[in-house]
Amino acid sequence: MTEILDILISANFWAAALRIATPLIFGVIGALVCERAGVLNLGIEGIFTAGAMAGWMAVWLGAGLWGGVLVAAMAGAFFGLIHAILTVPLGLSQHVSGIGVTLFATSLSYFIYRTALPDVSSPPRIEAFKPLDIPLLSDLPFIGPALFQQTALTFLALALVLATAYVLYRTPLGLAIRAVGDNPAAVESQGLSVYAIRIGTVVAGSAIMALGGAFLTMSAFDAFFFGMVNGRGWICIALTVFASWRPGKALIGALLFGAFDAFQVRLQTEVGSFIPGQVFLMMPYLLSIAALIVVARKADYPRALLVPYFRGQR
Amino acid sequence: MTGPAEEADIVLRLDGITKRFGALTANGDVSLDLSRGEILALLGENGAGKTTLMNILFGHYVADEGRVLVNGGGDALVELEPGSPHAALEAGIGMVHQHFTLAENLSALDNILLGTERLAALASSRAPARRKLEELMARSGLTVSLDTRISQLSVGEKQRVEILKALYRDARVLVLDEPTAVLTPQESETLFETLKKLAGDGLGIIFISHKLAEVIASSHRVAVLRGGRKVADLATAECDQRKLAELMVGHEIVETVRTPGSPGASLFVLKNVSAGDGRDALHSVDLDLKSGEILGIAGVSGNGQTTLARVISGLGAPTSGTAELEGTALRHTSARTMIDNGLARIPEDRHHDGIVGAMNVTENLAIETIRKPENQRFGLLRFAAMREKARQLIKAYDIRCQSEDSPARLLSGGNIQKIVLARTLEAEPKVVLAAQPSRGLDVGATYDVHQRLLAARARGAGVILISEDLDELMRLSDRIAVIHRGHLSAAEPTESLDRGTLGLRMAGHGGEEAA
Amino acid sequence: MIRFEPRGPVPVSRMLAVSVAAALAALMLAAIPMAFAGLSVFEAYGLMAKGAFGSLFAFTEMLTRATPLILTGLAAAVAFKAKLWNIGAEGQLYAGALAAVAVGTGLVSGPAYVLIPLVVLAGALAGGLVMLGPTLLKTRLGVDEVVTTLLLNFVILLFVQMMLEGPMQDPMGMGWPQSEPILDEAALPKLMARMRIHWGLIVALVAALGVWFLLKRTVWGFEIRAVGENAAAARHAGIPVTATFIRVGLLSGALAGLAGVGEVAGLKGYLTADLSPGFGYSGIVVAMLAGLSPVGVVLAALFIASIFVGADSMSRATGVSNYLADLIVAMALISVLVSGLFLRFKVRFVGGPAAKEAAE
Questions:
Q1: Where are the domains of chain B?
Q2: What are the C-alpha distances in Å from B482 to residues B267, B282, B505?
Q3: Does the distance separating the beta carbons of B376 and C238 come in below 8 Å?
């Protein structure tokens, strides 16, 4: 028991939790925004990969770190646009289209990486984001190392949560997004374009998702590996349901998830000798499934989620 | 309205509108003027092209030929950009669709403000909007609670929100599509009083209807559409119901006539049944259906009819209470057990629950009996037998389709309903549940449905008829019960009831609610 | 402005045309990344064709690669037909392989005619049971099966790794994470001498015929189609929707499990954690390309297999990454989605002078 307590009161642990949560925050916020507009984006896993590869490659080719972030976001927006066109004006199955975008984005990223770097044995590295050293705050006992020695991308993620909540609940645009996910006919009857709002929202949401991928190669690590996204995108989809499509709850969900993951990694070093490592590695996925089961009965899906809208067909 | 409209008074002009869908001409060369302060009734039966015409006006569809002209505030009429609801709203046209276009999870205020502010705006300014709305509500009498979620509002309140949406945008033309379809007679009267007041303030109003009485009572002028063409345009004062009916249908209407029946013993009984939750829940419902009668259930939609139909259909189990068929309690009900017990169900939403659109007519006719020996042997389908049966039913029920192999989704609403009637009534069920059986059907198809129900009654079946159409209920039912907020009143003989009494009960006033 | 108008019944010829058009579109789109990699398009496709069809060996290799794709394609097709979104064929494939290895490496012994059916059955059962979980979660609790099946893929792969590093590790395997080899009596026999092509292909073809028969001719198939096309109407008409989902889930998982059986018991002989290069996910593309038709699945699997085998061979010759194959496959999926619109709708371009029926 004392070991567990030791873990929980170490600043290191909470720092790790926030670090693990960061890509998930981007992912959940991106997925949540898309779903609020009525579009499930299963392209997320591939968009993560594309963001990770594109951001890293931009920096590796000489762009600045923020340039890389921008490139990653644009890559995400590109694949989001494909998904949006397939599912919004063309009204195709959001499930299948999303899987298609994931396959496309993943294979394209791998192909470009392999073509650009045909025969490297160990992946080349870039100078990644460094933890910020904020005067005063970083030096606070416990809270300093836990909260304020993160990279700029983590703070960007936190800021995005606030910004998303503000836009969704306080602006005319957010009202339109929420309405189009609830009843697109209501949006059209008020003279707004259902297609424009949905497409725009999916593109923006996908750009946000891609930042989660960029965090992996530009902050958590400093290189790109095959298979490095490893289901994080799918976990975000589960967390979105868990968060009831609310930005604040999304943040809490991602942090809980990060804390649990950080905890099990530390627990593993304590008890790893007699439990196989794979059991711990399974935890995030099982936990996501558990989260889905917990909220399944009361999940209040956006009413128009998965339902394509065709003009004049109500 | 006195005399022909002055040119300067015209706020809206439809000029030679033609719209085709494939081989079907939904609107053929329709022209129409609307003046300031005028209430114009657009009369026609289902499928006459009224809704298509209004959808063109509002920019949901683009006309193949013709123009829409509006008074842009000055004296001249200007052409409206086709295919743009945005342009229609900007030109001062407001539209209240038959199926409300409201986001259920948002508040009334949100729904009204949606799209009225710049999307790029950094914040929403609600205080002035609220003031303007409160003033509007006070003036027009259309009051709603602005901060309540739409899903919490009654049908009548939702309609008020829809009208407020238009008024908030300073509409000069208001179009209402079948506005009374979902209201009680009293609510309808209130609505028309409001509309008259609004017209008095200069608003031009078009309301679409197929109900002759309200057209006569509440419009200044009436335009009749039949088969997509305008067949009449006259001052309401010059017409009577009979004339309008003939104009609307093109021939004399054969009204369904119910001859006195001879109800038998109790057939299907619900005792103290509660089910569902929320707005549409049922609370301790008692119902006693006799053989050889039609028992009508009246009520404004959303008062528990859907749950009642689900329970009787075997789709939702009651949380308490019992159901009995011919004195035997029905336990562990499912759709299957209900069918096997001789209970025919005609669902409210025939497209959603009645047919599998992608499957063909044969398959849709066999779907309820697919496990019966006539359709399968050792789990293998008997195609020849299924097809033979289908041909027979297509003939007997006059289902118009290219062949028994056509996908059901290609059929018209009336023919889809005939598929449902054919497969459910063919087995001569003891009990028939008909939920909104004529909704959206034209006069001919409605007549067919009514005859089928009367025929079932004549051979001794009990029919439960759930409808929002009081005329239909009063014409067909031997007894009528009223459902309100999930409580069902005791059924009374139709002869002892009138529209006014029923309307009050539908609104929750008067009448004894069964304990 | 584009407008879609519903079409009448879809003739088989048009379905075929759509799939072929989508495949061709994907091949044409692939010219872009090929040019990016500095390949001459014609040369590249020549090399790929040669790699897939150039010799008897190449051809049998292509058929060998098509074997698991037919089965995962069927798994996706039958599930999607009922609108049960099983994206977990990859995990079910591994579960099938694991069960085949567990049974076939000495748990029971006996002659081939006992062991082979046992191995096949064990694999199918394991795959089916893996899919049963998400299906029950969907029908009982309303948990979306897309996410659960996707996540289970990762869990099962980790479980396989755990077994291969633990109780099921081959003691003679010099510490590599791999299983013991399958007994000779439990292995699916080869179809041709000196080639890798095995009886799994026959199993796959029989499965395709079986699924076709099920969907077209039986009451269960009728119910699957009805549930998939309109679950509400099916329920209203008294069709047992939940039971149908469970049947479909079991069948879909079992088919994916069979794919795993074929790979270990027919091809590799032992289990490793890199048994499948994403056959489960490619199966989705196969199913969609086939328009969910079981016979179409066979054809689509042959196409996808020749892309994979051809790209491998082309990659060896030119040094261009064989991720190109995955890229073509992904683009084929997107192409078939778009071209599927022409099946269901007449697409009219309205407003312009060319407002004719463009899709006719």
A1: 7-249, 256-342+428-515, 357-426
A2: 20, 13, 7
A3: no
